[in-house]
Amino acid sequence: MKRIHDLAEAQSLALAIVDTLPEPFLVLDDTLHLLAGSRCFYEVFGEDPAKAHGLSLFDLSGGQWDIPGLRQLLAAVIPEHAAMKGFEFEQDFANLGRRTFQLNALPIRDEGVSGRMVLLAIKDITERRVAEQERQQLLEHTEELLEQQSTLLREMQHRIANSLQIIASILLLKAGSVSSEETKNELRAAHQRVMSVAAVQNHLHASDGIEQIDMGPYLIKLSAGLASSMVGPKQKIEIVAAASEGALPSSHAVSVGLIVTELIMNAIKYAFPKTHASARIRITFEMAKSDWKLTVSDNGVGRLHNEDSKTSTGLGTVLIAALAKQLNAQISEISSPKGLTVAVTRSTFESRLPVAA
Asked: Which of 2, 42, 75, 141 ranks highest by number of CB atoms within 10 Å?
């Protein structure tokens, strides 16, 4: 490459490079007067290169560049040898309309001369800022819609919970008014099923969630509610629950809760035909990724040793089977004179907690 010795040739080459830049670009002297500009600058801002040459930056475009903040920042570029980065301003230009520009300035000095120059890069960021504003407005609108949805869902949960409580109360009142013991028991069972669903709704409302239910607190609360409402004064039965960390979709949690309710009702009804000094029902729930295992066990007489439970084909049994099928789970049971253990398992899962009551 030919070496350049003449300063004029070097300046000509530099100005030629500036002229080819695809974005508006200016070269200013140390008093911020125009030495040269890129062709893009003159075309975008409608300036005549011959007339613009030598003018102060703040006189260009009818004085549209005369911005106090820009004056202050550029005044410090030369004496302090400091670059100006990311200065933004919004202005109306005659042939452009309202635009937003970002300016970057850099001081330069040629060792062969005493004067300094300022390189000023001009970037039109109007579309970017408009897009950002639209995105922000969309985000705010989305957040507003989500808040409205959350409010509606909370209201719906509240209404559902109230309705379930009313239905449960009616069933309980009806059970107290009928004379048939069989009908009374069925109404009480229906009451407990409704209360099981209500427990999910209460848990949803308390946790402010609609998608997932933390199974540990839910099953503990459900078991405590069933114990207080179903265990009579004649037979004290301890109902305890233990669960590993994990959550299920709310719809699945409802089904698991109904299964637990049915199995506990069966255990209370059949496992202890005679008074048992240490009667106990134990619920365990374990999760591993999407697999889980629910176990309900008692230390009663077992199915094989209770004539009523051997022939039980009532609504509860049918409901448990239907719910397990809906959850893609399998039912298994182990019965002995020391008690009954019923396991509902989704997929292949090996238990890590003791299941004996």
From this structure: 42
